[in-house]
Amino acid sequence: MDKIDLSIIHLLQQNARMSISEISSKVNLSISAVSERLKKLENSNLIKQYTAIINPESFQKDLTVIMFVSLERSQYSTKFMEFVETEEEVLECHYIAGTYDYALKVITKNTESLQSIINKLKSLPGIRKTQTNVVLSSVKNNYSITPKLEETKKKI
Length: 156
Description:
Elements: H1 3-14, H2 20-27, H3 31-43, E1 63-71, H4 77-86, E2 90-95, E3 102-108, H5 111-122, E4 127-134
Antiparallel strand pairs: 1-3, 1-4, 2-3
């Protein structure tokens, strides 16, 4: 991976729908060279996926919370994971170290729908305790890392 590959990645992070010809003009390479580099970046799994980021407010999802969950014992993790996988409004689930076992990012309509999610969660066997923090505003919300050349381990 070189500076041109990084430039291509940064351009795609700004707009994943940018055409190969637009990219080629911005990095001063031919369309075929950019196309080849893109294929290598994708095949080496440096580019994991392309996606659309949906504005939650467009779907009346105005409440974001970070919820911490602690389980009584690890034997209860299967039911908890099933809940996480099936609950559409749980966007992220992270197994964490510290006082709690998991951190969830939930985006939902309002406090009533949040209460429903909390009640479903607390009805699961083995839920020891939860803590819910309402997000008032987001100062930073990146959807991916910003790669730097010196951090790259993978050769493409």
